[in-house]
Design brief:
Mean pLDDT: 90
Helix content: 25-40%
Number of strands: 2
Oligomer: single chain
Radius of gyration: 14 Å
Order of helices and strands: EEHH
Shape: globular
Strand content: 5-15%
Length: 70
Amino acid sequence: RLHLRRDGRWVRTPTLLGLARAAPYLSDGSRRSLSEVASYYNDVYHLLLKRGEVDDLVAYLATVGEVAGP
């Protein structure tokens, strides 16, 4: 989807549907699981999430990304 930002620029935002089945992740395919992606961003951007919080985030992303049907 395209979204208009407040500064007038358009940005493309991906959907979360089917996210758990979309591996590998990142533009270079370097992360093989949602857990690896969450840990990567936690480390690179110093989010200071605890292990349990990363696990909760991964569980949330996997749940909202589920697609019913074929």
